[in-house]
Amino acid sequence: MKRTQSARCDAIYRGRLLAVLATTCLFALASGCSSDRDAEQPIAFVHKIHVAQEEIPCTDCHVGAEDADHATIPDGEICRDCHDEALGDSPEEVKLVEMLSTGESIPWKRVHRLKEHVRFSHRRHLVAGQILCETCHGEVAERMLPFVRPFISFNTELGMERCISCHLESGNPRASIDCALCHR
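RESULT FIELD:
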């Protein structure tokens, strides 16, 4: 009889623990831990001015895209090359110059993030595949505000389907759809 009562207590304990964990997870999602929430960027960066008007290639600011697996988010040193002082009258540029003058890093929020089990190389896609940044990141040259969420969520089945269809339609024999090439 003691075992039955002990087993019942264990079941009650596990049930309560499960309820607490479920409530905690729901609370965390509701309070903003979800990846669906828009990131608040520190500066209202206008890609259109830099890419379309000034014709600055993406790879000038997003270092590593051509020669590494990952492209970087621009740091203050890259911005300082042109913005040691304000070039125009934008309040956002003034904010940037003030940040740069203190040596403070720009706290950009990363929005394009693949899951840990996915292997992706910017270099392989840009250089070997000759795929334009816009293919995955959209019409960046028209953006008046910084990214606050991914243009395409590749962490969904739809995102993976887009990768597979692009590989199939590319005509590039090296663009394989072998699962082991992209998934660890």
